[in-house]
Amino acid sequence: MNEFDAVLRVRGLRKEHGQGQGRVRAVDEVHLDVPAGQTLAVTGPSGCGKSTLLHLMGGLERPTRGEVWLAGQRIDGLSERALARLRRRSVGFVFQSFHLVEELSAAENVELPALLAGRSPRAARRRAADLLARVGLAARARHLPWQLSGGQRQRVAIARALANEPLVLLADEPTGNLDTAATRDVLRLFVGLRAAGQTVVIVTHDERVAATADRLVSMRDGMFVDDTRLAGRGTGRLDGQIELEG
Ligand SMILES: Nc1ncnc2c1ncn2[C@@H]1O[C@H](COP(=O)(O)OP(=O)(O)OP(=O)(O)O)[C@@H](O)[C@H]1O
After folding, report:
1. What is the DSSP annotation of 78-122?
2. 58: domain range?
3. CA of 117 to the centre of ligand 1 (A)
4. CA within 20 to 30 Å of 238's CA: 67, 191, 226, 244, which one?
5. What band does 231 get if pLDDT is binned at 50, 70 and 90?
6. What is the pLDDT at residue 229?
7. What atom of ligand 1 comes closest to residue 18's alpha carbon?
8. CA distance 37 to 40
9. What pLDDT is recorded for position 242?
10. Ligand 1 centroid to 160 CA: how many Å?
């Protein structure tokens, strides 16, 4: 396999935070290949380095050592400007706390990445309307984030993350702030994304989320301690309720 076979490839990745006595090795010699279309779940105890790994993979942080490749391009040495461009165009981020722009409607939040990537307002509007329909929120397009439930906000955030058809969707505890019903709605979307061939990496403590993945890696002290292929590929119940398709 060469670097073009994996959408995401990580080699000998290390990240140290802080200086001197306070120095912490958050990620320690991690190797990973995420093939196109795979949903990978990353679990492990608090502080084991999951979020740091996700940030390194999406170009939000730079490694202390090692390599990150995205679709055959080595990204860890890119300039700030090139990294920002790559994050805008090729990576979709979903965060536990949604990170929506509070002054903008659901539709405007979803339009934003396409506008920032230089697409026309008309194309951005069309794409946002399509994505909001696909996450089941067409009727909420004009609502502001505070007028939406947590689950609806996260579905807007997922639609926003998909706006530029990212090579990879990186989700950090996407259900961490959600109740059971909202978690189910968001999980349904991830199951649908997997069915649609989207490459996804999800950091999660939630077993229900991990069970929707193709593969589960567990981390401890910055390292992978377990790597499991999930034969079940999610539950039949969720598979029957796919909202996002092809
Ligand atoms: N910016 C930073 N400066 C200093 N230390 C940091 C920084 N970010 C993370 N760390 C430390 O690096 C280690 C890994 O943190 P990280 O947030 O990646 O873990 P995590 O597994 O995602 O944790 P959680 O599940 O609690 O979110 C922890 O010891 C954390 O305190």
Report:
1. --HHHHHHHHHHHEEEEETT----TTS-HHHHHHHHHHHTT--HH
2. 35-62+79-239
3. 30
4. 226
5. low
6. 85
7. 4
8. 10
9. 38
10. 26
For ligand 1, which residues put their CB under 6 angstroms from it?
17-18, 24, 26, 44, 46-52
| 244 domain-assigned | no
Tokens of 234: 């999610």
Instruction: Tell if the pTM clears 0.95, that is, is over it.
Output: no
Q: What would the pLDDT profile of 92-129 be if each residue is shown by its tens digit?
A: 999 999 999 999 999 999 999 999 999 999 999 999 99
| Residue 69: inside a domain | no
Calpha distance 171→201 (Å, rounded): 6
Task: Report, as an integer, the average pLDDT of 19-35.
Answer: 94
Residue 74 maps to a domain: no
Atom of ligand 1 nearest to the CA of 222: 14
Cα–Cα dist 193/37, whole Å: 9
Torsion of CA 5, 7, 11, 14, to 10 degrees: 180
